[in-house]
Amino acid sequence: MIQYEAVIGLEVHAQLSTGSKIFANSGTEAGREPNTLCDPVTLGLPGALPVLNKRVVDFAIKLGLATNCSITRENEFARKHYFYPDLPKGYQISQYDKPICQHGHLLVRVGGEERRVGITRIHLEEDAGKNVHGEHETTSFIDLNRAGVPLVEIVSEPEIRSPEEAGAYMRQMRQIVRYLDICDGNMEEGSLRCDANISLRKVGTEKLGTKVEIKNLNSFRFVERAIRYEITRQTTVLEQGDEIVQETRLWDEQKASTRSMRSKEYAEDYRYFPDPDLLPIVVDNDWIERIRATLPELPEQVYLRFKKGHQLDDYYCELLTEEKHTARYYDKALEVHHNQTALANWITTELFGRLNKENLGMEECPVSPENLGTLVKLIDEDVISGKIAKTVFDEMFSTGASPNSIVEATGLQQISNRDEIGGIIDEVLTQHPEQIAEFRDGKTKMLGFFVGQIMKRTAGKANPKVVNELLMAKLKGD
Amino acid sequence: MNSLCKLSAQEMRQGLLDTEFSAVELASAHLDSIKESNETLNSFITITEDKALAAAKAADTRLSSEKENSPLLCGLPLALKDMLVTKDVETTCGSKILKGFVPPYTGTAVARAEKQGMVVVGKTNMDEFGMGSSSENSAFGPVRNPWDTERIPGGSSGGSAAAVASGQAPLALGTDTGGSIRQPAAMTGIVGLKPTYGRVSRYGAVAYASSCDQVGPFARNIPDLAMLFAAIAGKDPQDATSVAEDVPDYLAEVAEKATSGLAGLKVGVPQEYLVDGLQPDVKSAFESSLGVFEKLGAEIVDVSLPHTEHALATYYIIVPAEASSNLARYDGVRYGHRTAKADTLQELYAKTRGEAFGKEVKRRIMMGSYVLSAGYYDAYYLKAQQVRTLVANDFLAAFTNHCDVIATPVSPCTAFKLGEKTSSPLEMYLADALTVPVSLAGLPALSIPCGLDTQNLPIGLQLIAPAFEESKLLSTGNAFLTEQPFELKPLTSGGQ
Amino acid sequence: MSLDQKDVLHVAKLSALELSEQEAEEFTKDLQDILGYVERLESVDVHGVVPTSHVHGIVNDFRDDIAKNSLKLEEVAEMAPEFKGGGFRVPKVL
User: Please, are residues B101 and B91 in contact by the beta-carbon 8 Å criterion?
Assistant: First the structure.
């Protein structure tokens, strides 16, 4: 039986989060009333001319630097021609043979292994509008609000070998654009989307098979599922002795399969040529260094720092670095109290749990990192118990108050005073002679009963360590 | 014709300042003149009477309060080629596909003229989307030459040229891609300037071939031309290809050099332009023009522009290619004509465009799509861009080593008869041979009248300068016309 | 390079132009003529010549990322041949 391996390349489109469009000064907000973000340039009115938004170039350079690309010193825009109602000018302004970034790579981790995936190019282009097809209507509705929103297209080398790797690559790309603050990464709204090129080849051979492009992959899950499906489909076709047809297919989530898109009725011949309305972009060293200086610590670097410096395990490292805000939060909390594992644990369990429940993002977190650090510090210094800490945390989350003020105001401080606890133990023991007898007959689980009674009397505030120690001494000593 | 319409723009300015007449009277006189002759000349597609009178009224207010401090052009009538986008005024580009299109914005050149207080009297007829050399390719019928209404006025800005030559407006704006200002100026006996590429904003000038298109002025004399040009020139943040070069006071520079002659000026004459196809009286008028320069103290030197013979072929690859792209937006979806017969999207596009574009436009779109299509790009488009470099280098070498300005005829022939050349597109293209090299090189060129042919039709002289040296063209042209004045017969002999 | 009517129809499709039979014939001849004329460029030696896309060699013209007013929906609607329910309309895109 012939073994096949998958050869996968991804084209990731990321909308850049600028305030205005790439070549026009209409706004870019999603969710606005259709066709209210239109100006002469966006509508492709006669006589209107594009002028490039400088921030778009800054963002692309930033992404290029973060993905180990070289920045093309002289890059330019070209026109890509086709007729479609969501494309107002009959051509899309895009970069063709002189993209702004080239020859980069990402290190992708799957199952504890790291693989290098090459990035062929990153180029700038304008997004198209939206065609909406109502089921019972004979016409399609065109909304041009999205037309002209800046996009980067990130094209990987065909070096991805599995659906999992594709998913990991996509996740990492999302993580990077979010760290860089150049794209909100919202896949549901289409700010980040992906097409996949998939072909199969016999294991051990170099020659690439016929490739199929899958469009419309707007979630990590779809990326993985669609690629997995397509690998199976192509394998079956080849095993039956048939040939793969070069085509574009669409992922249908409902049917969990890909289907062939109707071939375009117009011949595909984009007739690219350099856009005479836009000047070449010459990027010098100063510009690159200026952007480099604005680069944040990248996810990969933070990951390694957490792993090596803090000796956190992979699980925590991944969770804590997934979002820039989380990593920053963790760093800030550590400044207050340097207990890496405890803070990692608090953030990834209690804090994530509550944020999820309230549907809040890390950047909207009501508990400041300083306060969370203080809370863990209070536990470690035996001011409060771990159990009480959860109550305090709930209060912190609801009110945003500091743990100190909550502990003080509600008297939740742990009781560690040996005399005080000793007195309470004495009271409990005096009132339960029968239980003492049972304990001495060997029923050791009665210990729990006594602890429970003591905690009840102290509203859970007694330091369990002290309670245990004194209780044992008294039970044995008497 | 009202005598107000025969004044120069400068005389009009003086009359307004001296309150001999008001801007409203001036506008009315020109509107009357348009109404009188438009049926014959067909030079206007739209006459903006109400807006013109309102603008004139505003100009009068401004003149009476600001007097000498008001802008030079305040209250002066202006005709606009219908290629220039005007807010709330139909803008058709001479095409059925834009019939009824009322833009929501005004382009930069027009906005600058209006800011000066100019009074737009209407939108002039033209070859559809600028594609033509005779102003016959218009969905609104051909424009006629005021010198002889059986003849074409040149194109594509034929309506603007005819308007200025006939006293319908003292000043007009046109666009020039391969000669569309210079050639109609020559054929109607007026002056026209194609500025350096990037000197005037293209924002709001409907794109035909973006790398060659320029907006430029028409007038009946050089100082008038300089005034209008100064108003529209300069960097525009809305056109990335406009250039941030200082705009000199063209009028002052022209005035300063008006009496100093042309001593020391080297006028280059490229032998490659004196080709066999040149009409004999065009050639002799050109040769006697060289005598005028010599008389003014200039030196005539031979220069060589060896790639001239390849310029036209280069132009007719690059320009249709860009046109095929620029005209892709006319699809019947967002504005303009839309077919009534489409059931599918493909039909919507093909029928809308098939119905509403004229033949020459379709021909150039086809040609342009072809040279850009897969497999042909390198052989045609890329090659043409390389030859374009050679054409531009020829000029650069001539200016660097041999001369200050270059003189050539504007057109190999004078105004021909309507319908005379419509049967052969290639023959029509050949008429552009002397104006397109300048367009490819992005240089400024001035067209001035230099004589009449045997049929009493005007002959044009083209002066070419290095990039951004329009001042040199204007002062040279002014010296020439002072030495050898030209009588604009349609105006001087027009009825009182 | 020769061009026939099939090429013309292909280019017409690329250009989204419906041509009448007569036009297709006519354009075939016209394009043959014009292409025949421009073929003279074949003789020009352009070895090592940099192509010109922009005549002045200027670079880097940008605008700042500032959003300004868009057109009013009524203005957009008024220009459009078919505008319904806040959007442009075209025959259903399948």
Answer: yes
**Domains along chain A with CATH numbers:** 4-291 (no CATH), 299-404 (no CATH), 418-477 (1.10.10.410)
CB contact under 8 A, C90 and A142: yes
Which of A39, A90, A131 lies closest to C71 in CB terms? Answer: A39
Provide the Cα torsion B336, B337, B341, B342; round to 10°. Answer: -30
Give the chain C residue nearest A83 (alpha carbons). C16
What is the Cα–Cα distance from A30 to A15, expressed in whole angstroms?
A: 11
C67 belongs to a structural domain: no
Instruction: Give the model confidence (pLDDT) of B71-122 as tens digits.
Output: 999 999 999 999 999 999 999 999 999 999 999 999 999 999 999 999 999 9
Report the pLDDT value the prediction gives residue A193, as an integer from 0 to 100: 94
Question: A108 in helix, strand or coil?
Answer: strand
Q: What is the pLDDT of residues B173-227, one digit of tens each?
A: 999 999 999 999 999 999 999 999 999 999 999 999 999 999 999 999 999 999 9
Strand partners, A124: A152
CB A374 within 8 A of CB A336: yes
Structural domains present in chain B: 13-264 (3.90.1300.10)
In a domain, C80, yes or no: no
CATH code, domain carrying C38: 1.10.20
Q: Which residues contact B486 (CB under 8 A, 6 or more apart)?
A: B189, B448, B449, B450, B451, B458
Q: Which domain holds residue C24?
A: 5-42
Instruction: Label residue B494 by pLDDT band (50, 70, 90).
Output: low
Rounded alpha-carbon distances, angstroms, from residue B150 to B42, B139, B417? 12, 19, 6
- The closest CB to that of C59, out of A19, A38, A282, belongs to A282
**Averaged over B249-256, what is the pLDDT?**
93
ipTM of the complex: 0.97
Supply φ then ψ for residue A103, to 5 degrees. 55, 55
- The radius of gyration computed from the CA coordinates of chain C, to the nearest angstrom, equals 23
In chain A, which stretches have pLDDT less than 50? Answer: 264-266
Contacts of C56 in chain A (CB under 8 A): none
Asked whether residue C11 is assigned to any structural domain, the reply reads yes
